[in-house]
Write a structure and sequence with these properties.
The complex is a heterodimer of chains A (503) and B (330).
Chain A lengths: L7 E10 L2 E11 L4 E5 L6 H8 L7 E6 L2 E3 L4 H6 L2 E4 L11 H5 L14 H14 L15 H12 L6 E5 L7 H16 L3 E5 L3 H7 L2 E6 L2 E7 L5 H9 L17 E10 L3 E9 L3 E6 L5 H8 L7 E6 L2 E3 L4 H6 L2 E4 L3 H5 L6 H6 L7 E2 L2 E2 L1 H15 L15 H13 L5 E5 L7 H16 L3 E6 L2 H7 L2 E6 L2 E7 L5 H8 L9
Parallel strand pairs in A: 3-8, 3-9, 6-7, 7-8, 13-20, 13-21, 16-19, 19-20
Antiparallel strand pairs in A: 1-2, 1-4, 4-5, 9-10, 11-12, 11-14, 14-15, 17-18, 21-22
Helix pairs in contact in A: 8-17, 13-14
Chain B lengths: L7 H31 L6 H26 L7 H19 L1 H25 L4 H20 L4 E2 L10 H4 L1 E2 L2 E2 H19 L1 H11 L1 H6 L4 H27 L1 E2 L7 H11 L11 H20 L6 H22 L8
Antiparallel strand pairs in B: 1-4, 2-3
Helix pairs in contact in B: 1-12, 2-7, 2-8, 2-10, 2-11, 2-12, 3-4, 3-5, 3-10, 4-5, 4-10, 7-8, 8-10, 11-12, 11-13
The chains are: A alpha/beta (503), B mainly alpha (330).
Chain lengths: 503, 330
């Protein structure tokens, strides 16, 4: 870090979307030969910042400098040609082609008559692969490589240009621990070669291992840059969450009743291990963790959509086996799934039919579906959940996100379940509906429902849950009661820190 | 559609929406008027009854395929399956008489349907591949069964078997009665029962249906059982009408059936369509072919015209959904 001309510098970047100030004057700089971590909660503005950098969005004001030259990015290709390259979470490679073809995709070296210059292609690729110390050659077929090696191909692709800055966006999300080490070696090599590296991750532990400096974003603004060696998790966490966060926990809590649901030692190959917890009637249990921590997979297993390798599920003290959602529903378990459009709703069907779908067999008069019974159920849940729709005939696809989500919740409330699992109940819906759904969850608990809320949003679990299960890499790290939980301890638990205090 | 007071723009859009939903009925009406004006024989009662009667075999098959298509799958095996039913029932008639031949033929045909339903429903194989394969396999089965020979009922006076194809009740041909009866029963099944609702749900979004506790595999299986039941009925009418048959009697009908179902507005993506609209689709195909003959065009022209009409129908369907005639992305 002797060179002080930043490889990449952002100055006062402002970006607003209707109703949201996504970036509020963000400035930060990456020096050549530096790993600069970028941290922030979901919605803090990291991805907007990256989109501005990649030319996907244009900033309302502010400037991007590459080696102190002001530049304007209009698309990701232009960013790449100027030396800013992205390594994304989701890889975009042609699996049927060789490594060399992927590395130079779209810009294969040519001979006369447009024939590909294979010799040069392979020589150039081999040179880059050497630089990365890859364990495979330019002729390998990408589809036959592991995820980690494909990521190296992606990195090699980045290095075909004279990269000034390489941005890694959650690069370890799908890597094993051993593969992670290889990636870190590559990042260190790049650093030694004088490339500036931006490292985006939620995982504190990694950030403290690999980075030189840490910049924290919160609510669209830059809250500070710390030198990694001189700081600690506490300080970073404090910057990330801030003290101003409104955690109004004034919702009425009810005394939990009998144990309604108990899970012991549940494991599912490669997804989660040894998950145990109990849930009482009238209690809301929050599951908090990063995407990929195994929360959704647990919910799907409890709903009969996945078969666990081992473990037991007890409902009201009785062991049950769940082979399919039909079993789960029969035992009084309901799941409001993560993705309402893909898993929750038949968008082309009307509101009423969506709400009554799981129980249509029981709403009959003779052999026929009873219109009256169906409309009665629709009316009941429309009123209870305040669903805004002109009539039950309205196609669900035409409703707003919040109202669609209420239809899914109504569908499962109408089953009168003993255990209600809601996965990301407020993802992508407006603030008003969000508050309504939070209140509804508390209200359900007050009526004696046992509720599991899975969420990636910390304020949400803090707000609605009586106890919070913190998950990391498929394991329960710790279970907090709402009295003892703090934002710091929660962030540490889901980042894989403080493993000694695992419950 | 209470858009009476709406501005021109919304009025136009609601006309578009109406056409999008009921365009097929409107087109059918216009089409009938057009033919009737150009040819007086077209509107003749005997002609109309004749067209309907000759459409019944296609129609009965299309009723079943409607269920398959709404659940989001295809059935290209119905043509060769119908040949199979026809040959089998004629042969069994000669061996064991009509009383046993008919139920046995239904059982054999429906076990083919069960096999397809198992492969597509429970094993989740692609329905296009499975039924295309079955088209060929069943054809081979039919030829093996018959040894390649045509089947005939030797003593046509000694049996009541001809009633399904040639009989009349109250002056109405029996095949038409069977078609109407089956259409009413299946329309009720699809529109009014929990099973029908599940067919729409599975076709509309099979993941969401599964998440709602609907046994997708069983629903898909049942649609193929229904389809094969309809094929067996069609085979019965066919055999009874001609009292004899070639091995290839149903050849190519799978596409005509699919055309009728799509013309009726069932979406190939699944989740949309009704039995009533399929009946309209069948009648349109029947009257178009009849009209072309009356205009003096050669019989084989109908294949080309049918194809053009199907392409137009599919295009119109997707254009209404996109809101424009052409789009660079789906």
């Amino acid at each position: 870090m002797t060179d002080t001309t930043p490889a990449l510098r952002l100055e006062n970047i402002v970006k607003t979307f209707p109703g949201v100030r996504a970036l509020d004057g963000v400035s930060f700089a990456v020096l050549p030969g530096e790993v600069h971590a970028l941290l922030g909660e979901n919605g803090a503005g990291k991805s907007t910042l990256m989109k501005v950098l990649g030319g996907v969005h244009q900033p309302d004001s502010g400037t991007i400098y590459i080696e102190e030259e002001p530049v304007v990015m209009t698309n990701p290709l232009e960013a790449k040609s100027k030396g800013v390259v992205f390594i994304h979470q989701e890889l975009s490679l042609a699996e049927e082609l060789s490594v060399a073809e992927n590395v130079y995709l779209g810009e294969l070296p040519r001979k006369r008559f447009g024939r590909v210059d294979w010799k040069r292609l392979h020589a150039d690729t081999a040179a880059i692969l050497d630089r990365l110390n890859c364990g495979f050659g330019p002729g390998a077929i990408v589809g036959e490589l592991s995820i980690a090696k494909r990521q190296m191909v992606e990195i090699a692709r980045a290095l075909t240009v004279d990269a000034k800055a390489v941005i890694f966006d959650e690069p370890t999300a799908s890597l094993t621990d051993a593969e992670k080490e290889v990636l870190f070696d590559i990042i260190r090599d790049l650093r030694e070669q004088g490339v500036g590296i931006v490292y985006i991750s939620h995982r504190m532990e990694e950030i403290f291992r690999i980075s030189d400096r840490i910049s924290v974003l919160r609510d669209g603004s830059h809250r500070g840059t710390l030198i990694t060696a001189e700081t600690g998790e506490d300080e970073v966490t404090r910057l990330m969450i801030g003290r101003s966060l409104d955690l109004s926990r004034n919702v009425a809590r009810t005394a939990p009743g009998e144990v309604a649901f108990e899970v012991r030692g549940l494991s599912c190959e490669g997804l989660f291990e040894d998950v145990s917890f109990e849930l009482r009637a009238g209690e809301v249990l929050g599951f908090y963790g990063l995407v990929g921590a195994g929360r959704t997979e647990i919910a799907e297993t409890l709903f009969g959509l996945r078969t666990p390798r081992s473990g037991e599920i007890h409902l009201k003290g009785r062991a049950v086996t769940l082979h399919s959602p039909v079993d789960a529903i029969r035992h009084g378990i309901s799941l409001v799934p993560e993705s309402r459009k893909e898993q929750g709703l038949v968008l082309g069907m009307n509101c009423r039919d969506n709400i009554t779908l799981p129980q249509v067999d029981d709403l009959t008069a003779g052999p026929f579906v009873s219109d009256g019974a169906e409309i009665a159920i629709f009316d009941q849940y429309r009123d209870r959940l305040d669903i805004k729709t002109p009539s039950w005939r309205q196609q669900v696809g035409n409703l707003s996100g919040g109202n669609q989500q209420k239809i899914v919740i109504g569908k499962w409330l109408a089953m009168r379940p003993d255990v209600l699992i809601v996965d990301e109940p407020t993802r992508g819906i407006d603030v008003g509906s969000k508050a309504e759904i939070h209140n509804l969850i508390r209200e359900l608990a007050a009526h004696g429902y046992a509720v599991i809320v899975i969420s990636s949003e910390m304020p949400e679990v803090l707000h609605v849950a009586d106890r919070i299960v913190a998950m990391y890499h498929g394991r329960i790290m710790r279970t907090f009661t709402s009295d003892e939980v703090t934002e710091d301890s929660l962030v540490q638990a889901i980042s894989g820190l403080g493993q000694d205090s695992a419950a | 559609m209470a858009d009476v007071s709406a501005s021109d723009g919304t009025a136009l859009r609601s006309v578009g929406a109406f056409l999008g939903r009921h365009g097929i009925v409107v087109a059918f009406g216009l089409f009938m008027i057009g033919f009737a004006l150009t040819n007086e024989r077209f509107i003749d009662m005997d002609n109309i009854l004749g067209v309907i009667r000759s459409s019944t075999i296609l129609g009965v098959m299309a009723l079943g395929v409607t269920f398959v298509v709404i659940s989001g799958n295809l059935d290209l095996s119905v043509g060769s399956m119908m040949s199979f039913s026809t040959i089998v029932v004629l042969d069994l008639h000669e061996r064991i008489g009509p009383e046993l031949a008919i139920p046995l033929m239904f059982a054999m045909t429906m076990s083919l349907g069960a096999l397809i339903g198992f492969l597509v429903g429970y094993l989740r194989l692609n329905s296009l591949i499975v039924t295309l394969g079955m088209l060929s396999a069943i054809h081979g089965l039919t030829l093996t069964y018959s040894g390649g020979q045509n089947m005939d009922i030797a003593d046509q006076q000694a049996t009541w078997f001809s009633v399904f194809g040639q009989g009349r009740v109250l002056g109405i041909p029996v095949p038409i009665l069977m078609f109407v009866l089956l259409a009413v029963v299946l329309a009720t099944l699809l529109a009014k029962t929990p099973f029908g609702r599940k067919v729409y749900a599975v076709g509309g979004n099979d993941v969401a249906a599964t998440f709602s506790g609907i046994p997708r595999a069983r629903v898909v299986f049942m649609t193929y059982i229904i389809s094969s039941f309809c094929v067996a009925t069609a085979g019965l009418i066919q055999a009874s009408r001609s009292m004899g048959s070639q091995n290839t009697v149903g050849q190519g009908m799978e596409l005509e059936v699919l055309a009728a179902v799509i013309l009726g507005g069932a979406s190939l993506m699944g989740g949309a369509g009704t039995v009533f609209k399929t009946v309209i689709g069948v009648l349109i195909l029947g009257f178009i072919q009849n009209g072309l003959l009356l205009l003096g065009l050669e019989f084989y022209v109908q294949y080309v015209v049918t194809w053009i009409i199907i392409i137009l129908a599919v295009w119109l369907d997707i254009a209404v959904k996109r809101g424009r005639l052409w789009s660079p992305i789906a």
